Amino acid sequence: MKKTTLLHICLMSVVLLLAGCSVSKFIPEGSYLLDDVKIESDNKEIKSSEMNLYVRQTPNAKWFSLFRFPMYIYSASGLDSTKWINKLWRKLGDAPVVYSRDAARETQEEIEKAVRNMGYMGAVVDLKEESKGKRMKVLYDIHSGAPYVIDHISYDIADYQIRDFLETDSSRTLLHEGMRFDVNTLDEERQRITQYLQNRGYYRFNKDFITFQADTMLNTHKVGLTLELAPFRIRKEDTPTPHRQYKIRNVNYVLDADFSALSAEALHEFDSIRSGDVNLFYKDKLFLRPKVLSDYNFLTPGRLYRSRDVQNTYSSLGRLSILKYSNIRFDEVLENDSAYLDAYVMLSRNKNKSLSFEVEGTNSAGDLGAAASVSFTHRNLFKGSETFTIKLRGAYEAVTGLEGYTNSNYMEYGVESSLNFPEFMFPFLSSDFKRRIKATSEVSVKYNWQIRPEFERTLASAGWSYRWTRRGRANHRFDLLDINYIYMPYTSPTFDEYLNRMDEVNPLLRHSYEDLFIVRLGYTYTYNSAGGNRPSARNRNSYSVRFNIEEAGNLLYAFSRLVNKSPRYGEAYKLANIDFAQYVKADIDYAKNFVIDERNSFVFHAGLGVAVPYGNSKSLPFEKLYFSGGANSVRGWRVRSLGPGSYRGDGNTIDYVNHTGDIKLDLNLEYRTFLFWKLNGAAFIDAGNIWNIRSQGIQSDGVFKFNRFYKQLAVSYGLGIRFDLDFLILRFDGGMKAVNPMYTGRDHFPIISPDFKRDFAFHFAVGYPF
């Protein structure tokens, strides 16, 4: 294997060398391949990474910031662009970037302008070129000079009412004496003042009415700054007038109409009804209850216009799944010396009902199968944009590696249904509170029947939960009530024998395969600094945090203790003659994305989970136990094949039930790079394991100990391919074991003497691991 690897390396080196030589045929005589671009500054406050935004020409992209393989792929094509093979190579690769002096000078000017806008009015950017053969390296050297600072600030505002507003809000200003004369900060202050006034009735106000006059003092680097407010006028030839404050006069909701052709006269053709402060116009019949629209409206007649109310109305209406889109228009009405606005809110209806089918392939620890499902959705069940969903699912999987079973098939049948309300559904809550919290409520029921060779299991659940979002970045979920019933109608004789044997190894394992009630509540908080997966967020550093905590059985246990001081039946209290679980579980995940350039990024992830059974439970329910290995954990191991601690297992497929624990730790480093077309690559290092809180008879090494847990961390490394379809990411990862806590001696470090058959694991998944 070593000879084969060495041969591959040699062949790759030859290919890269030949490709490098062929690049020159695409570089015209007297021109250069742009090899490198650097930005340096003599001022720590001017970050080179921020100046990269102004670079007009960048070198060819590198895989993992090392190899310009896309350029070499392009260069493998011939000069005849009509041949299909050349077209293919050029489509897959990147054309060599020919250095442009005009683009370099434009970059020099843009960087210089940006630095001067930061307050360094005397900044100079030197352009340095260094050629070697047919390659060119470019350096932009920034000399900032001394900054200009604001010496004093004055205001030239003739409009006394706006002047009073700004004086009242002066504590929030972004400007202060002694600060650097930063044009960007001045623009932010203009935007802040504009937003402030637009939330106080100034509907026609925009930031162009605000200007700054800067008076530089000779040889002092000090600036006298004056904020000027221009009077209102639409065109230059118009007579200047004071800025008007507008009040909302009428609020009209128009359903199922052409907004572009809407006029006050056209509304006479509609039926109308009034709900609260809102006029509703419709044809035929209303598809939403009137109170729904009035409750989701933030535009109030008689109140000053506020842009915040407009955004809140858009946000609230956006939570109604029955609406395809909404649009708000204002008509100005001048009466005497007062100015009013008539609001027209246009609502377009989405499809009420939909039916969808899904077919999927499954891969559970190497066992292949297929699943199919059909879903029905009604988006307006009670004419309040309540979303009702019911889904039927069936799955089949061929289970391998089992001995002593007449049937080696796994089948699953399930039905799940949910009803989602676009408001905080709870008794005695006011409409104002529901509007402020902007939450959705969901009631759900599920039934799942699993038929395995070893056993049959039925899971039935019902839940009541709330979800809400804050500023598009923080998401909250509160599970007020989640009831799960696990019923085991059948276990095979072979599996019973296995459990009997495991009573000596893991006496608590049997509890995971008994009838059980789980009555839990939980809270999940998720924060993404990038504000979701927006395209603009991909080109800047970001991080995400996820925290989850849940508890089960505490109220039932307290009530049982109140009725009976000790259990009537055995060691645990029961509900309807069935044990109920009692535990607390907490998880936290942190991921940090460092963007190197538009095609390369570095991601760090850390995850920690701890679950503690107590009181009525000696062990966690099987569904709540942690496992390690797999596509989203330590990728050198198959799913559910690592841990706890240094536990090795017996290699039997059914032994996956022992590879579970109460504590989990994951540490991941991943370098992501764009390859070509829709393919991305990754190189990763994973570390982690699971442990038990107390000994369960497996091995003492499976119990978490502070003085040795770090010695039991499993480590793996590998490469991956991501197929980015924009709406879906297919992921293929191959991991190799580097440190294996299941073994001692030489086998403890397979990175030194790898065995592909023993140490390699392949994973297929959808989406990124973190």
Task: Please tell me about this protein's structure.
The protein is built from 13 helices and 29 strands. Among the domains are: 2-143, Roll (Ubiquitin-like (UB roll)), CATH 3.10.20.310; 149-229, Roll (Ubiquitin-like (UB roll)), CATH 3.10.20; 246-349, Ubiquitin-like (UB roll). The relative contact order is 0.05. It has 770 residues and is an alpha+beta fold. The model is unreliable at 1-11, 16-21 and 533-537 (pLDDT under 50). Helix 1 (2-22) packs across helix 3 (69-75). The longest helix is centred in the N-terminal third of the chain and has 21 residues, at 2-22. The strands form five sheets. It has a 16-stranded antiparallel beta sheet.
Give the SSE layout.
Elements: H1 2-22, E1 33-41, H2 48-51, H3 69-75, H4 84-92, H5 101-117, E2 124-132, E3 135-143, E4 149-156, H6 160-168, H7 183-198, E5 210-217, E6 222-229, E7 246-255, E8 271-275, E9 278-282, H8 290-295, H9 307-318, E10 323-335, E11 338-349, E12 353-364, E13 367-378, E14 387-398, E15 409-421, H10 431-437, E16 439-451, E17 455-470, E18 474-491, H11 493-505, E19 516-528, E20 542-552, H12 554-563, E21 574-575, E22 578-579, E23 583-597, E24 600-613, E25 663-676, E26 679-691, E27 714-724, E28 729-739, H13 756-759, E29 760-766
Parallel strand pairs: 1-3, 4-6, 7-9, 7-11
Antiparallel strand pairs: 2-3, 5-6, 8-9, 10-11, 12-13, 13-14, 14-15, 15-16, 16-17, 17-18, 18-19, 19-20, 20-23, 21-22, 23-24, 24-25, 25-26, 26-27, 27-28, 28-29
Helix pairs in contact: 1-3, 3-4
